[in-house]
Write a structure and sequence with these properties.
The structure holds 2 protein chains of 2 kinds. By secondary structure, chain A is of the alpha+beta class. In chain A, 52% of the residues lie in helices and 21% in strands. The chains are: A alpha+beta, B alpha/beta. Chain A binds chain B through residues 536-537, 540-545, 547-553, 555-556, 559, 573, 576-577, 705-707, 709-711, and chain B through 14-18, 20-21, 24-25, 37-38, 59-62, 86-89, 106-111.
């Protein structure tokens, strides 16, 4: 307020009149005094009578005229002054009024009780009331109920002290019932016309600043709660109560959307202390709200805050009814976003009208985003902690051995199962067992074309290795490696799972062994079976061949009509074949006894030269077609053997030699001692054995049949039996032959023990 | 004396007794008999002489009877070959027929079986 208009405002109309009243009596008293002096002078001069009375009267009249003139002049002067002064006053009042009316703040004048004497339009606009309405009320009456008594008291105090101006922040209530904060300044103006004190009231609407401040405070409170809490569950009460109470809402809630954002459920809530609000909270907790309807649905769908200033059961299905019952009529829903997607809603409810400006909306959006991030962060942290705890438990409690290996191949740690399995403590495991295990792993991996343990990131291999335990046992270990990459994808460390598969492996080995033994046995059986079938086939063929002659010729004889020489000849054929069948049976039984170990040989000292001589003599009697040439060593020591069997061997070889020799051939029989054995050779100058047949001569039914040998009869078992007998004596038999030149069969029989030394040989000789 | 047409039969057998038996029986029936003691000899005679039929043993030294039959039939597909074998395990008869034999005679055989197989295969006439 400028000082100019304030100066004249001191000269009120009443003070101007006072000034006039004060000035006039002094002028008149002066004139009356002058008249008194003149009258006294006249009476002193001795003037009396009518002239003196006339003179006094004239003087009185003159005095009166002078007085009137003086008074008139004064009055005119005073009137001019008053006129001037009152014009000034009128101007001042106009200025004041204009200033009041055009002031940018709400202004008014009140009396000491606070009743409005004057208000400016700004104040009316601010309070949403007409000037007339305002003038009918008072400052305490438009102040929020809780503060109105304080205003009344302050006014009373101000009235009793001359300089009692004061300032305060208070809440004014608009005509529509909305309270808003103002900065209030009350200045005393002095006594009013009725002698009562008046005050100049100035009001500035500070709701915007207040709201900004509140929003700031709420954000600070939200951030504080978040930054000092580990989880949303811890932070939620402080956050929601800050939003609710500080922003002046009755209910603050956080709703969470389910995974596919189809339903919302109340996760955390705060409400002012009120049973109806508690009831509303219980009702809200029991609800699952669809995300495609109501205010919350709109906020979810749009991703921005939404406001409903008139909540009804119709506008808000499900929750509207409960809100109405609790008297809640205003609702704001603001999305809680995590990484751009809506994961829930911050929802505020209030009773009655609320100013919801952009600042609040901005705050809700920011808070929603921060809460969303926090929830995400804390859930990730919790999940991470849980996962870490899980892994730690797995590592420590796993029944299989686990080791963590650094990228450099050092064993970082091993779990209890591993230490127990390998019978090591962590230090000896690290320094002794691990380097061995690692080498074993790489070797085993190499054998099956797997990469070595530290070959970078791989799926890892699984190998079995043999490893020694700390207490000296050997185990089979199944080792599986998995490399764990760091953030850049390089191998950070390797996890090695170690399992003791010794039992499995040994069982498996045994199983494989017995399986292969079984297979071998099966193969042997099969072979035996084949041999048996083959043997049966050969034997039956031999018998049937022999029987062909027997049956055929006996049928001829039976049918009769034969000459005597025919009969004799056929009888001879029949006899020979029957004899052959008989020998065949005998040989087969012999062989079977020998091969099954049921034939015993009676060992005794045998003079092998004598056996040779006897056999040759018998053979010579039987056949005169070959020449026998004995070449016996007379100093040959006696041998240990079964004489009858040795005779069987020699006669078989000699008979063969005779059979396969042409007429006039020579059969040489020789004996000599060689290295503890008697070496006997039966050589002929016969057909000889072809090279492809020589390896088979000792096998059953392997008669040499080629060329001229074809017609030579035999069982095909003789040489097989001979070989068996020689080997039963501990000797060997072999043959040398050249086709067309003859064959030489050699066999050895061990010399008798006491005869085996050269000195004895000499002495006997 | 023979009642039917007289034919020439080659008896291929390494067993001398069997040769003699067949010769005696077939000659008694009025046929001519040639003998061979192994497969190669049988092939030589069969191709040189061209008998009406061959009585062929299987197990002979050197070339066996089946190989001899194969070689003969390769040159003279119409040659009648009867396998006479002491091999008479299960499947042997089928094996011989599959190898091309006109008939199979199992040893030992009845004398009547021998003469009737000759008569049947080469049109010899049996007495009523």
């Amino acid at each position: 307020m400028s000082p100019g208009p304030r100066q004249p405002s001191a000269a009120t109309p009443s003070s101007i009149e006072g000034l006039v009243r004060r000035a006039t009596p002094y002028s008149i008293a002066g004139l009356v005094a002058l008249y008194g002096l003149a009258a006294a002078g006249l009476s002193l001069a001795g003037l009396s009578g009518p002239s003196a009375a006339l003179a006094l009267l004239v003087g009185l009249i003159l005095l009166f005229a002078v007085v009137v003139a003086v008074v008139n002049r004064d009055a005119r002067r005073v009137a001019a002054t008053v006129e001037r002064e009152s014009r000034t006053v009128r101007d001042s009042v106009a200025w004041v009024r204009m200033a009041l009316d055009h002031a940018d703040v709400g202004m008014g004048i009140i009396d000491s009780r606070g009743s409005w004497l004057h208000v400016n339009s700004r104040l009316g606009a601010m309070l949403g009331r007409s000037e007339a309405d305002l003038l009918a009320t008072s400052l305490p009456a438009i102040t929020a109920e809780s503060l109105s008594e304080a205003i009344t008291e302050s006014l009373a105090q101000a009235a009793s002290s001359p300089n009692g101006g004061w300032k305060a922040e208070t809440l004014q209530v608009r005509a529509d019932g909305v309270a808003f904060p103002v900065s209030l300044s009350v200045t005393p103006l002095g006594d009013g016309p009725a002698g009562a004190a008046t005050f100049l009231v100035q009001e500035v609407d500070i709701s915007a600043a207040k709201r900004a401040e509140t929003v700031r405070d709420v954000m600070v409170a939200v951030r504080h709660a978040i930054s000092t809490s580990a989880t949303w569950e811890h932070a939620a009460p402080a956050v929601l109560s800050a939003m609710g109470s500080q922003l002046g809402w009755d209910v603050a809630q956080l709703w969470s959307a389910d995974a596919d954002v189809k339903l919302l459920r109340l996760r955390q809530s705060w409400q002012a202390d009120d049973p109806r609000l508690a009831e509303f909270d219980r009702a809200a907790h029991s609800l699952a709200l669809p995300t495609n309807s109501g205010l919350m649905g709109r906020a979810i769908q749009s991703g921005v805050p939404a406001v409903n200033e008139e909540v009804t059961p119709a506008s808000e299905s499900l929750i509207g009814e409960a809100a109405r019952r609790a008297g809640l009529t205003v609702e704001v829903a603001s999305p809680v976003t995590v990484g751009g997607t809506v994961s829930g809603l911050l929802v505020l409810f209030a009773r009655g009208p609320r100013d919801i400006d952009s600042g609040v909306m901005t705050m809700l959006t920011m808070a929603g985003s921060e809460i969303g991030q926090f929830i995400h962060r804390s859930e990730t942290t919790v999940a991470l902690q849980r996962s870490e705890a899980d892994h730690r438990a797995i590592f420590e409690r796993a029944p299989i051995g686990i080791a963590r290996i650094s990228a450099e191949g050092e064993l970082l740690e091993g779990n209890a199962a591993l230490l127990m399995m390998l019978k090591h403590d962590i230090d000896t495991l690290r320094t002794q067992a691990w380097p061995e295990l690692r080498r074993a792993y790489d070797l085993a991996a190499g054998r099956v074309n797997l990469p070595p343990l530290l070959a970078g990131i791989s799926d890892g291999g699984s190998v079995q290795v043999r490893a020694a335990t700390g207490d000296g046992r050997w185990l089979w270990l199944q080792m599986s490696a998995a490399s764990i990459p760091d953030l850049k994808g390089r191998p950070e460390h390797v996890l090695l799972m170690v399992e003791d598969v010794t039992t499995v492996r040994e069982t498996q080995d045994k199983l494989e062994e017995s399986l292969s033994a079984q297979q071998r046995a099966n193969a042997d059986l099969e072979k035996l079976d084949r041999t048996k079938t083959e043997f049966l086939s050969i034997v039956s063929h031999e018998f049937r061949t022999a029987l062909t002659g027997i049956q055929g010729f006996s049928e001829l004889i039976r049918d009769g009509g034969l000459e005597a020489d025919e009969l004799r000849a056929y009888g001879g054929y029949i006899f020979n074949d029957a004899d052959r069948v008989n020998r065949l049976i005998g040989d087969m039984l012999d062989l079977d006894r020998m091969e099954s170990g049921r034939m015993s040989i009676r060992m005794a000292d045998v003079d092998i030269n004598e056996v040779l001589t006897d056999t040759v003599a018998r053979a010579a009697t039987a056949s005169s077609m070959v020449e026998f040439k004995p070449d016996l060593d007379p100093r040959l020591p006696i041998v240990t053997g079964d004489r009858d069997r040795l005779v069987q061997v020699v006669s078989n070889l000699v008979n063969n030699a005779v059979k396969y020799s042409p007429e006039g051939g020579t059969v040489t029989i020789s004996s000599r001692a060689e290295g503890g054995y008697a070496l006997i050779t039966v050589a002929d100058t016969g057909l000889g054995i072809p090279p492809d047949e020589i390896v088979h001569v000792f096998e059953r039914f392997r008669r040499v049949r080629s060329g001229a040998a074809q017609s030579i009869a035999g069982t095909g078992l003789g040489l097989t039996i001979v070989k068996q007998i020689v080997e039963m004596h501990g000797g060997k038999i072999w043959v040398e032959s050249a086709v067309g030149h003859g064959s030489a069969f050699h066999f050895t029989i061990p010399l008798a023990l006491e005869a085996a030394t050269p000195s004895k040989q000499l002495r006997h000789a | 004396m023979p009642e039917g047409r007289a034919i020439t039969v080659l008896v291929a057998d390494d067993n001398e007794v069997a040769q003699r038996l067949c010769r005696r029986v077939l000659e008694k029936a009025g046929h001519r008999v040639l003998t061979a003691s192994d497969g190669q000899e049988a092939v030589n005679i069969a191709l040189a002489v061209g008998p009406d039929m061959i009585l062929m043993d299987v197990a002979m030294p050197g070339m066996d009877g089946l190989e001899a039959m194969r070689q003969i039939k390769a040159q003279k597909p119409s040659m009648v070959v009867v396998i006479a074998s002491a091999h008479s395990m299960a499947g042997d008869r089928e094996r011989f027929l599959a190898a091309g034999a006109n008939d199979v005679l199992s040893k030992p055989f009845r004398l009547n079986d021998l003469t009737s197989v000759v008569d049947r295969l080469v049109g010899g006439v049996k007495p009523a």
